[in-house]
């Protein structure tokens, strides 16, 4: 019997310990040998490095795909932002909204001004999304359409920000963003399929072969109540370039009239829950938002932010409602992925998981805490003891690290987006980006996990740095573990899926300062070469 494809003259980083193999042989979609064997096709890699394909354990695929067609607000100044808005307004068809994404007031010196936006795009509705996704800024005509041009409304779990005179500034935080929903949602499935495919093609070019999409179907994160249909259609029409695990937004879970002995107080219709699907498209955890963002000062902290004394952020719902949601989802058979950035929110989630496991024990669930943004040492130990998987974002340290340092002050800098102490506690952390919140190229994430420096050049909790091999393992095997997929993916071993990235250098041995310069030469998914430079 011949293999279909052999990649030879390679340095194969198997991630089984520090083993390196000379070749990898593939038959159909699986790895069948780690040596040169007879094959229908043999490719000489000329010494290039082969690793498992990257798995981004927390990204927003449709949101990122949509943002690829929006005005790019990653600009150096407010003036440049107004120019970019004006430029799009000059060429957009009559009546079309000007939608931009990716602004960060920490880099601009402040949020955009609603009146300046009105001047930049006369008569247009302008909607600018903050890089965190936790807030947005809208201009006068949009505020008028929402009926809040001159006075705010109360939104539970959110804020319509006003100036000293009580006039809305256009900044809508957290749940207040939902005010826009009736105007923009739902996106058509066809638009979402386009976005999903566009995002997936970028992922392949960066060595990513699988992702976990961090919230579909509802809440402020959802793009349509039938968002899963978009992923299914993408898959059925050959337009889903990578393997996807979908988190379901908690907002779409509802009481289900199952038999009382089933222990399913809430779920989706038909009792569908975590695990349904296959290796290409699968339902993952339920996504519960417990708080907001660190650089936006909307995450729930036990102590004040360093740069805004008296402020500790807030929870997205009452503590009791959040706790009940987590416990009931656990009892109903869901894996829970709870967004928790501030340490007060992390306390709440750990308490809820603890209670859930005491009352309704389940084995090897791997509930997750998304971000685990600012965690005290006792919380690391407790997550390990509870079998909770923290899901930090390495690239945050670089791209928004300067804003994080200001919000946390020097004492808590080492609590931010930890890795070292997670590994030391026996936790298997995944790698992820939260794209489009920051650049999602995995090698940028690896670079920051190893170097722990902000893009401004400051060390950010250097004691939380890990080695290149550990970072690579997190972004592959760790992410597979967080998805209960480590038997099929995450290492280069006989029997596993042939999901591979071919790299110009080895993240495990290259000078740490140049990890981000490593190039992706090609990407293999299920035995097919799906991208080549
Ligand atoms: Zn996210």
Automatic annotation (TrEMBL):
UniProt cross-references to InterPro entries, sorted A to Z: Amidohydro_3, Metal-dep_hydrolase_composite, Metal_Hydrolase, YtcJ-like
Superkingdom of origin: Bacteria
Residues in Amidohydrolase domain copies: 41-530
A Pfam family of this chain: Amidohydro_3
Protein name: Amidohydrolase
Species whose genome carries this gene: Nocardioides mangrovi
């Amino acid at each position: 019997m011949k293999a279909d494809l052999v990649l030879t003259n390679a340095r194969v980083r198997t991630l089984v310990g520090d083993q390196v193999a000379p070749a990898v042989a593939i038959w159909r979609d699986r790895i069948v040998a780690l040596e040169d064997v007879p094959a229908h096709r043999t490719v000489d890699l000329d010494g290039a490095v082969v690793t498992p394909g990257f798995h981004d354990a927390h990204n927003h695929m449709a949101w990122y795909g949509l943002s690829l067609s929006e005005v790019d607000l990653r600009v150096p100044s407010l003036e440049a932002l107004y120019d970019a808005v004006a430029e799009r307004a000059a060429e957009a068809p009559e009546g079309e909204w000007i939608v931009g994404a990716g602004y960060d007031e920490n880099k601009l010196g402040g949020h955009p001004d609603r009146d300046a936006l009105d001047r930049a795009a006369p008569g247009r509705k302008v909607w600018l999304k903050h890089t965190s996704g936790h807030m947005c800024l809208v201009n006068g005509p949009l505020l008028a359409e929402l009926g809040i041009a001159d006075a705010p409304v109360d939104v539970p779990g959110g804020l319509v920000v006003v100036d000293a005179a009580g006039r809305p500034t256009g900044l809508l935080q957290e749940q207040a963003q939902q005010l826009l929903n009736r105007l923009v949602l739902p996106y058509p499935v066809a638009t979402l399929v386009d976005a999903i495919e566009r995002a997936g093609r970028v992922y392949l070019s960066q060595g990513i072969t699988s992702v976990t999409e961090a919230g579909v179907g509802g809440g402020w994160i959802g793009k349509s109540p039938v968002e899963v249909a978009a992923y299914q259609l993408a898959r059925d029409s050959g337009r889903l370039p990578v393997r996807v695990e979908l988190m379901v937004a908690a907002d779409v879970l509802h009481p289900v009239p199952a038999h009382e002995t089933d222990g399913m107080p809430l779920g989706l219709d038909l009792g569908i829950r975590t695990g349904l699907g296959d290796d290409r498209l699968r339902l993952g955890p339920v996504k519960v938002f417990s708080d907001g963002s660190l650089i936006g000062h909307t995450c729930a902290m036990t102590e004040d932010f360093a740069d805004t004394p008296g402020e500790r952020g807030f929870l997205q719902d009452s503590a009791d409602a959040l706790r009940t949601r987590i416990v009931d989802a656990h009892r109903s058979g869901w894996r829970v992925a709870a967004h928790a950035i501030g340490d007060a929110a992390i306390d709440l989630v750990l308490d809820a998981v603890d209670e859930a496991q005491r009352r309704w024990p389940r084995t090897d669930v791997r509930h997750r805490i998304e971000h685990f943004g600012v965690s005290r040492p006792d919380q690391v130990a407790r997550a390990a003891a509870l079998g909770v998987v923290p899901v930090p974002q390495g690239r945050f340290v670089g791209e928004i690290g300067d804003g994080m340092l200001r919000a946390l002050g020097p004492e808590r800098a080492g609590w931010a987006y930890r890795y070292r102490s997670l590994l030391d506690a026996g936790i298997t952390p995944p790698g992820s980006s939260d794209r489009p919140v920051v650049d999602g190229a995995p090698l940028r994430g690896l670079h920051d996990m190893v170097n722990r420096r902000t893009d401004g050049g400051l060390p950010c909790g250097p004691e939380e740095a890990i080695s290149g091999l550990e970072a690579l393992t997190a972004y592959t095997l760790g992410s597979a573990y967080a998805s209960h997929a480590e038997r099929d993916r995450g290492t280069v071993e006989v029997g596993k899926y042939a999901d591979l990235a071919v790299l110009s250098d080895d993240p495990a041995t290259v000078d740490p300062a140049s990890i981000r310069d490593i190039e992706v030469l090609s990407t293999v998914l299920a035995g097919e070469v799906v991208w080549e430079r």
